[in-house]
Amino acid sequence: MSAVYRHDYPLPGAFNLVLVSWADSDSYQHKTFVCCLTKSRGAGQPVQAPARRLFMNRHPWLSMRLALYGCSVADSTADAFQFVTFAEASCDANTTLAREIAFPANGSNRFAACVRPVYGDLDPVQLVEWMEMARIVGVDVVQVFYHILSKRTLDVFLYYESTGFVILSPTTPAVKKGYPPRGFSRPRWTPRQDFEAWMDGWVTLNDCVHRLSRYDFVAILDFDELLVPSSPYNTVLEVAQAAAHRYPQAAAFFIHTYVVPIDGPPTNNRSLISFLRHLEHSVSNKLDDYGWGASSPKIVVRPTRVTSLTTRTVLPAKNYISKNLPDSSYKFLHYRRCQLGKSKLWRGCDIDRVRDSDILRFEPQWLQALSQLPLARLGFTHKHAAGITRAADAARVSNRP
């Protein structure tokens, strides 16, 4: 369970904690407890506040579910609280181990991103390319929850954490009492899927959005997706601010997908950037139906205006609404395989493709950023990062007088 400070929710003017947790589906309807807040770990008389349920995911087939609780102390001067423990009925009884309260950093006029939990091995070159493109288009920080990463993947995240661009937080999937430990798995809509895999992502996304609640805008992304502003906009913050001006009551903006199939050989072999090698396969019209008959947009949220969310849905706070981000202001590129074996995974495989100029206009900046990376610190060799090292060589040549 994470405990995140909120100055505005659920009780305005109070010291609020939003608790992001798992709940056992057998007992969640009867779960009651209190928060015990202290100014230092294990010292002083705790201030007791009852917890109340703010949201519960009610999927009936899940043994563990996303649950959000709130604890509020009406004294607005109580901002010195640093730790919280929990008890069933009274702070005078046995309590849990103390947890440090997370305080959101100031993000006024800034744009952040949340990603689903990462685990295992990610292609480090594509991960670096993603990070640099995100920085170029104006993402200020990326919150990453991780669980057991390969060394080469962790090295990339640690580097970007050292620059302040990534906030890196460990996480572990919850386990129902009496059940064996489990790891993260990729969520899939298949008859034999692990439904908790979807919930793993939703828990961390809600945790992330509350931790970034002082940012003006937070996008829900994955590392195979790029959110790119269209001209005349140069940053995603400019895109979001324009939409917020147009729709002042919006709590969230849906962003629609342009699928970039990566099956088959690249069509843009000249590019030194792997994300640009399939651009002539970019879908020419927005495609949200991946073949299972439901719309599947992603989301940019205004954190103080939402109460809960999943990867593709959002629950606005009272008096707020959700709107579509204007299509002309951005491209949202999802790089994915068109087919799985001989059977089509989604029905967008036969749609005509176009060359995407929105992202290609950033290629010079992208190459320049990649050329300045400390490859040795990232653990890259020329063999494993050939495109990046060639980009560095090309940038040095172009900068000669």
Short description:
With 401 residues, the protein is α/β, with parallel strands linked by helices.
Structure in words:
Keywords: Glycosyltransferase, Membrane, Transferase, Transmembrane, Transmembrane helix. It comes from Batillaria attramentaria. With 401 residues, the protein is α/β, with parallel strands linked by helices. The chain has helices at 124-136, 151-162, 196-211, 236-246, 357-360, 363-371, 375-378, 386-398, and strands at residues 2-6, 15-24, 34-38, 47-50, 52-56, 64-73, 83-87, 99-100, 107-115, 118-120, 141-149, 166-170, 215-221, 225-229, 250-255, 258-261, 282-283, 298-301, 306-309, 314-316, 321-324, 330-336, 339-340, 343-344, 353-354. It folds into 2 domains: 2-100, Immunoglobulin-like (Sandwich), CATH 2.60.40; 107-363. Strands 9, 10, 11, 12, 13, 15, 18 and 21 form an 8-stranded mixed β-sheet that branches. Mean pLDDT is 82; it is low at 283-295.
* Major pleated sheet: 8 strands, mixed
Distance between the termini: 57 Å
Number of helices: 8
Q: Give the percentage of residues in beta strands.
A: 25-35%
Runs in which pLDDT lies below 50 for 5 or more consecutive residues are 283-295
Radius of gyration over alpha carbons?
Answer: 22 Å
Quaternary form: single chain
Number of strands: 25
Please tell me what the overall shape is. globular
The class by helix and strand makeup works out as alpha/beta
Number of domains: 2
Q: Write down the overall mean pLDDT.
A: 82
Helix content: 10-25%
GO molecular function: glycosyltransferase activity
Keywords: Glycosyltransferase, Membrane, Transferase, Transmembrane, Transmembrane helix
Main location: membrane
Membrane topology: Single-pass membrane protein
